[in-house]
Backbone:
């Protein structure tokens, strides 16, 4: 009895890990729900959020740290590799964001496509990513501020960094103070920002949107001031590129003439640098997390993500080319690499100009780093995986104030105690895990999209009534045919057709083929994931003998290529065109399906499907598989110390899920039904007034 109970509990736990929620989960919530967010963001505001959230610590702080410890002069290649991986992920993000526009970003997508267990892991990692991201940015502000006071140790005593000898820790009160300041602005700065908006109407075309948007976060992010800060920051970057190039040609690019060559730490050091600078690309992920507040997410989210990422990646690479050439990598200042590089060449006025841009950019990025965290907490609390405390939205401001305060306290504590290099590596883990899961979600969406959706307990009675009515109609139809002489010819034809053995055989064969295709696709996706993990792990395991590494790499590569080949050979699921929010018409969806059968693997398919679903990720399955491969390899190349620190956090998350999330999930008492039945039930319920 005890064994059976344990087995049943284990089976229930596995089922809980595989639970998936529906795409449009908002329609299951009442219209008057208190945790709804206002839709006010446009493309320009999304680009402002993306660029303002991204350009900051990645270029003003990490350039020095990564060049000194990992990449050397090959820093540009580190940014390039991280940018390519981010671009691949951006395509996947764009499709999922347009199909599933809701707060939660990668957590929301993985909950829909993969399952509750993976979604919890990603959500828990994103909590770490965004909290630590804000802390790392805050730690980068204080050294730049100190330059205005005369040097690195010139800040007032109450704000200056201090070393605690017995703990070997350097605390940063200024960083903690800035986090608290931003948190307070996000929570209580509504009236002040609204007043500013009223007084600035003649200056900015966005001021009317500012007056309408009651979220303090987006008041600031989409305001005239935020836009000006972002534009000024871009101009500072252009100044660094132009002025730095002039100095480099005058001095002969001394940074590229060091004794260690272009790869002083080897290829592995360059790749380790790529994994660390991934922290610099989390801004477009912030754009995706605002999906629920975008006016036209199917059109605007892909444009906002692609534009923000393109601007940031270009600026990162150009700045790194210049700065590494001005100063040898081992002589770079880890805290203020760009301004110090100009100071070493006698351009002190340029140092102050760059420092001003750095402070503005880092303050903007600090707010952008804290931007998504309350939304992630709110999305997880909506799903029951965290206490409802985190899903509360202030009635007046429509801001998740409680989640914002908790985020601010945690970020301030980390900023006070931990240094940038430790924080940046931990942020990269969350970013890379999220990007990898999003790519896997694209493969699942295309080949094995969910064919069943959860039905809330409030609508299960409606589902039972619908089935009872269908059965009653069927009995009436059959009874009328059997006992009444005057059955119509049409009814006879329908009944006889259903009973025709040939038609029954064809229907059964079609269903069997589809089941076989889905199983083959699922196995192929699993083969790709396992192959990538084996290949990247063995390739990075330099402690293994050479022949062993080659054998294991070959085995992993075989699994990867086999899975990829099968995905290219089998058909994608027809249901992918109607999955999630549609930007086009049903006719466009049917056209895309028809062309998919006629013109396989051509641009015609993607063009037609794009009209049906807003944005379609190109080159599937190749692009998502490349994304999974690159991101996993970068994950493997993060340091052991980083993985130990992140591992502790993930283990804590496992216990939280086991003892709270698993039993409080909103999917605990749901019944899974076919998608077609769910659409019918939601439609009838909406007409009856049960659901918004």
Residues:
């Amino acid at each position: 009895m005890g064994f059976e109970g344990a087995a049943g509990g284990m089976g229930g736990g596995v089922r809980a890990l595989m639970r998936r929620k529906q795409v449009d989960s908002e329609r299951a919530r009442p219209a008057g729900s208190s945790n709804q967010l206002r839709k006010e963001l446009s493309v320009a505001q999304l680009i402002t959020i993306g660029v303002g959230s991204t350009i900051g610590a990645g270029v003003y702080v990490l350039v020095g740290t990564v060049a000194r410890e990992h990449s050397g002069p090959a820093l540009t290649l580190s940014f390039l590799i991280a940018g390519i991986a981010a671009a691949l992920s951006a395509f996947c993000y764009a499709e999922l964001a347009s199909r599933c526009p809701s707060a939660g970003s990668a957590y929301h997508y993985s909950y829909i496509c993969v399952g509750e267990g993976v979604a919890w892991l990603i959500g828990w990692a994103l909590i770490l990513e965004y909290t630590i991201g804000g802390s790392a940015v805050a730690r980068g502000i204080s050294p730049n501020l100190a330059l205005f006071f005369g040097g690195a140790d010139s800040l007032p005593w109450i704000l200056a960094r201090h070393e605690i000898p017995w703990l070997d820790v350097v605390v940063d009160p200024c960083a903690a103070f800035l986090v608290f300041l931003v948190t307070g602005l996000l929570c209580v700065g509504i009236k002040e920002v609204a007043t500013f908006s009223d007084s600035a109407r003649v200056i900015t075309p966005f001021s009317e949107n500012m007056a309408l948007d009651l979220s303090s976060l987006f008041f600031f992010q989409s305001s005239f001031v935020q836009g000006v800060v972002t534009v000024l920051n871009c101009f500072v970057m252009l100044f660094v590129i132009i002025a730095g190039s002039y100095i480099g040609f005058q001095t002969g690019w001394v940074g590229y003439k060091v004794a260690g060559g272009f790869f002083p730490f080897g290829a592995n050091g360059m790749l380790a640098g790529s994994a660390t600078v991934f922290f610099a690309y989390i801004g477009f992920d912030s754009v995706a997390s605002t999906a629920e507040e975008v006016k036209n997410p199917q059109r605007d989210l892909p444009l906002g993500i692609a534009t923000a990422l393109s601007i940031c990646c270009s600026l990162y690479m150009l700045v790194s080319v210049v700065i590494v050439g001005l100063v040898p990598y081992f002589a770079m200042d880890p805290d203020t690499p760009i301004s110090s590089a100009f100071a070493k060449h006698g351009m002190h006025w340029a140092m102050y100009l760059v420092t001003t841009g750095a402070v503005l950019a880092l303050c903007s990025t600090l707010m952008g780093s804290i931007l998504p965290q309350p939304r992630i907490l709110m999305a997880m609390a909506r799903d029951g995986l965290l206490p409802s405390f985190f899903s509360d939205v202030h009635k007046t401001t429509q801001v998740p104030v409680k989640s914002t305060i908790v985020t601010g306290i945690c970020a301030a504590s980390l900023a006070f105690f931990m240094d940038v290099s430790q924080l940046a590596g931990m942020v990269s883990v969350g970013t890379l895990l999220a990007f990898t899961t999003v790519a896997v979600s694209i493969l699942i969406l295309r080949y094995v999209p969910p064919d069943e959706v959860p039905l809330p307990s409030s609508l299960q009675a409606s589902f039972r009534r619908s089935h009872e009515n269908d059965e009653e109609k069927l009995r009436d139809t059959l009874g009328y045919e059997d006992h009444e002489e005057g059955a119509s010819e049409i009814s006879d034809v329908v009944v006889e057709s259903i009973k025709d053995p040939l038609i029954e055989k064809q229907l059964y064969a079609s269903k069997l083929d589809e089941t076989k295709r889905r199983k083959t696709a699922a196995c192929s996706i699993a083969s790709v994931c396992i192959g990538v993990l084996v290949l990247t792990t063995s390739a990075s395991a330099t402690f293994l003998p050479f022949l062993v590494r080659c054998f294991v790499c070959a085995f992993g590569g075989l699994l990867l290529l086999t899975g990829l080949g099968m995905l290219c050979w089998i058909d994608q699921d027809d249901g992918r065109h109607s999955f999630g929010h549609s930007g086009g018409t049903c006719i466009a969806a049917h056209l895309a399906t028809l062309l998919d059968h006629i013109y396989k693997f051509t641009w015609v398919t993607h063009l037609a499907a794009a009209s049906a679903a807003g944005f379609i990720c190109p080159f599937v399955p190749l692009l998502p598989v490349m994304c999974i491969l690159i991101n996993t390899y970068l994950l493997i190349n993060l340091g052991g110390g980083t993985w130990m620190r992140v591992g502790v956090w993930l283990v804590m998350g496992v216990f939280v899920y086991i003892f709270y999330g698993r039993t409080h999930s909103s999917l605990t008492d749901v019944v899974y039904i076919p998608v077609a039945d769910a659409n019918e039930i939601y439609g009838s319920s909406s007409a009856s007034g049960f659901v918004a």
Summary: The longest helix spans residues 501-540. Strands lie at 162-164, 169-171, 452-455, 671-674.
